[in-house]
Amino acid sequence: MENFNNNLNRQPLTKRERQLLKKQQREKERLLLARRKKIRKILFISLPILLLVVIIVFFAKSYTPEEIHPGEPKMEIPQKEYDAGTVSMTGGKIKYAYEIKNTGVGDLKIDSI
Q1: Is the residue at 113 inside a domain?
Q2: Statement: the pTM of the whole predicted model exceeds 0.70
Q3: What is the pLDDT of residues 54-111, one digit of tens each?
Q4: What does the DSSP assignment read for 8-65?
Q5: Which domain, by its residues, includes 95?
Q6: Are residues 109 and 99 in contact, defined by beta-carbon separation less than 8 angstroms?
């Protein structure tokens, strides 16, 4: 109420005061617009990331542990040695195929031999 009485007793604003008030108002509007742009930018970046996280969590929970890790593979080689006999160096290459079985539950992956 005190400000209201002061404003009633006050004389009209000078041209310079009006210019300063307009300048202050424009600066406030500029800052408000900059904040709004910053908030939009943050939302534009964060909302898709949040949506992606929700989708990943949803699909991750829909799989049971057995589907993700069905079990451990186990490699079994019935015949581990092969005797090729006496072979001369000029006799050429010897070929022999080893049988490898997967007696485990999961997929057997052989990276190198």
Answers
A1: no
A2: no
A3: 888 887 766 655 555 567 888 888 888 888 888 877 877 888 888 888 888 878 888 8
A4: HHSPPPPHHHHHHHHHHHHHHHHHHHHHHHHHHHHHHHHHHHHHHHHHHHHHHHHS-H
A5: 2-102
A6: no
Give the total number of structural domains in the chain. 1
pLDDT digits (tens, 9 = 90+) for 16-52: 999 999 999 999 999 999 999 999 999 899 988 999 9
- Residues 6 or more apart in contact with residue 79 via CB below 8 angstroms: 98, 99
Judged by DSSP in three states, 102 sits in strand
HEC letters along 39-52 = HHHHHHHHHHHHHH
Residue 63 lies in a domain: yes
Amino acid, res. 46: S
Which pLDDT tens digit goes with each residue over 91-100? 778 888 888 8
Structural domain includes residue 107: no
In-domain check, residue 90: yes
* DSSP-derived secondary structure letter, 71: -
